[in-house]
Specification:
alpha+beta, 154 residues, Ubiquitin-like (UB roll), DNA polymerase, domain 1, single chain, globular
């Protein structure tokens, strides 16, 4: 299977039924993609595939032929990441960090679709991601701030 990972062409010759989550972590060293629930319910393994948010634990490798997969490893090199990272840090929207890569990817996916979301739209956009440490208000506030501060980035 040939696909693009963080903007670079890559190939995977393994089982087409293998989970994208496992291949990203084990074969491509993308450790930002976390294994939380293995059922698509926590969002810790969230990635963008062709600019759409997916839980990589629910994606079979055979389904991503020629797709563009973006993980935090690739996203952190962008101006959009800088805006989100700054907002998450300033508003104390990070504690243990386990869920944050998925939260950041979900935030980016939301802002790609809607650069000026309301609070309710942010809550809905992040609804597939669980956080047990930070609390959702700080994360929602961080996304609101990033949308304001990063106006024109998305």
């Amino acid at each position: 299977m040939n696909f693009y990972l963080n903007g670079k062409p890559v190939s995977h010759e393994g089982d087409p039924a293998a989970r994208l989550l496992d291949v990203l972590r084990d074969d491509f060293d993308c450790k930002s993609v976390k294994c939380g629930c293995k059922e698509g319910e926590c969002g810790a393994c969230a990635v963008l595939i062709d600019d759409v948010l997916y839980n990589s634990c629910c994606v079979a490798m055979g389904s991503i032929e020629e797709a563009h997969v973006l993980t935090l490893e690739g996203f952190r090199e962008t101006k959009q990441f800088a805006a989100l990272s700054k907002a998450f840090g300033e508003l104390s929207a990070v504690q243990c960090g386990f869920c944050i890569p998925g939260m950041v990817m979900a935030s980016h996916a939301l802002l790609l679709k809607n650069p000026h979301p309301t609070t309710d739209e942010i809550r809905e956009g992040l609804s597939g991601n669980l956080c047990r440490c930070t609390g959702y208000n700080a994360i929602v506030n961080a996304v609101e701030n990033a949308a304001k501060e990063g106006d024109g980035l998305w």
